[in-house]
Fold this protein.
Amino acid sequence: MKNNKIQWILGAIALLVLPLVLQYFGNAWVRIADLALLYVMLALGLNIVVGYAGLLDLGYVAFYAVGAYMFGLLASPHLADNFAWFAAQFPDGLHLSLWLVIPLALVLAAATGVLLGIPVLKLRGDYLAIVTLGFGEIIRIFLNNLDHPVNITNGPKGLGQIDSVKIFGLDLGRRLELLGYDINSVTLYYYLFLALVLVTVVVCYRLQDSRIGRAWMAIREDEIAAKAMGINTRNMKLLAFGMGASFGGVAGAMFGAFQGFVSPESFSLMESVMIVAMVVLGGIGHIPGVILGAVLLSALPEVLRYVAGPLQAMTDGRLDASILRQLLIALAMITVMLLRPRGLWPAPEHGKSLARKS
């Protein structure tokens, strides 16, 4: 027990010190850590749908886009510039606090998730994957084309000049000087994202051990048997879609604030595929495994930039560095799935865990 406490304390210290150490190597490394935390939130949200309830969702990036565009519209001058009635009501624009942004993003994304869940309740497996994939693409195409006849999303140009997050009077978009030490904006965002990830992890653990979590897992294993045992599979599926989507919406809102710009290109099908790969690669249904998969797959492409460059030089520039990077990522994923088919850190099998306890 004492050793576990020491490990937790050391882990907490390492997470707190990490961005301060990465700052010495450049803000780009802290930025990679920030985006990795956002992907951890996305992967944990998708794990509720895929890992707990067993519903293969390939359009999860749609909820990410909903959260990002919600914050982009409310925290940028776009609405005031295009709608006179909005400019009359809010001449200085809307500058919502973090305590309003997070609940709004959560509720809006959850409602969108339920709307997706209603027409696909009776679909399973490949059919469900195809329909959710189409839903994700529909959302992206809508965002790309809603610039006429009424300019709502600014189309492919995207939304810019988005406000940074302000919390307790502290603007995370500006450098902070504390005790003679400069803390960059990306480092401040790191601590905010870390706090949100910790809350997400706690919620996921509580859901996993709750009656709702057990019902989801029963549906995942055998939906007919679950229904025979009295579980309302319809409501449980809708709840899974709504809960999973809510985390995606919050992550999207934070992404919009962090980037200061959102456009439909950030929410392509490849993003959805990568989030699903994070869950599968780490270990479906296992929270530590999902976190590991998200961190690796979000950071690996950036780290491989330093490998792809020399390889391109060896071929006299015949191969594009970005293509080489994708090839290296694909080879790494294939290798992992061949050697660890259940994921890098899979959930312990029930029989083995019970044998260990006894």
Notes: The chain has a mean pLDDT of 87.
